[in-house]
């Protein structure tokens, strides 16, 4: 029986997901999942863009921006661990929150009251229509895992997150954890 996704879990791309620029070797935090669809953010794909490149007045802020997914890539989204400072946030789980007062978040960064350890920005998000994610899971495109890193999930760029999660899954997944991104390089 296939495990059903719930918000707060991680979606780990199966090693067989090749050639999909957005999702190959991705780990996604599922921010919401209900009958209408699903929303998540890719955690391990930093872009060559910083907050300073996108927001006026943040010239000294080298906070990286991540590719959240292929949907609405012209919009900036954020996850954080400071709901007491950012009104309007929605808890995902394990002390991780989504969104809230964007200007307040910017002001807190400028005042150095929030750092890269507390907040992560994304261009776009990953989205699925009703039952679409369930279908992809049944087709073995994703493995569902618990977010055992909790708040620590936002503290680094996690370039090795996909490989780390495969090692945790063990078995044949562990073998794939050291495979090159492009199998032709092998």
Order of helix and strand elements from N to C terminus: EEEEHEEEEHEHEHH
- Tell me the strand percentage band: 25-35%
What percent of the residues sit in helical stretches (DSSP H or I)?
10-25%
Contiguous runs where pLDDT drops below 50 for at least 5 residues: none
Main sheet summary = 10 strands, mixed
Q: In one word, what is the shape?
A: globular
Total number of strands:
10
Q: In DSSP terms, counting alpha (H) and pi (I) runs of 4 or more, how many helices?
A: 5
Structural class: alpha+beta
Mean pLDDT: 91
| Rg from alpha-carbon coordinates | 16 Å
Distance between the termini: 34 Å
How would you describe this structure to a colleague?
This protein has 186 residues and is an alpha+beta fold. The chain is 19% helix and 32% strand. Strands 1, 2, 3, 4, 5, 6, 7, 8, 9 and 10 form a ten-stranded mixed beta sheet that branches. Strand 2 and strand 3 (37-42) form a beta hairpin. The longest helix is centred in the middle third of the chain and has 9 residues, at 102-110. 32% of the residues are buried. The mean pLDDT is 91.
């Amino acid at each position: 029986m296939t495990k059903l996704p719930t918000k707060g879990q991680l979606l780990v791309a199966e090693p067989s997901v090749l050639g999909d620029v957005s999702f190959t070797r991705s780990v996604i935090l599922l921010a919401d999942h209900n009958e209408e669809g699903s929303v998540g953010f890719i955690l391990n794909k930093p872009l060559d863009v910083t907050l300073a490149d996108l927001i006026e007045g943040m010239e000294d802020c080298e906070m990286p921006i991540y590719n959240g997914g292929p949907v609405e890539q012209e919009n900036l989204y954020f996850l954080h661990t400071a709901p007491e400072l950012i009104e309007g946030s929605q808890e995902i789980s394990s002390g991780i929150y989504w969104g809230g007062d964007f200007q307040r978040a910017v002001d807190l960064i400028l005042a150095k009251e929030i750092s890269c350890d507390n907040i992560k920005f994304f261009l776009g998000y990953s989205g699925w229509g009703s039952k679409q994610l369930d279908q992809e899971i049944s087709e073995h495109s994703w493995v569902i895992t618990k977010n055992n890193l909790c708040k620590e999930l936002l503290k680094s760029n996690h370039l090795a997150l996909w490989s780390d999660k495969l090692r945790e899954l063990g078995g044949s997944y562990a073998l794939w954890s050291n495979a090159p991104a492009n199998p032709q390089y092998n």
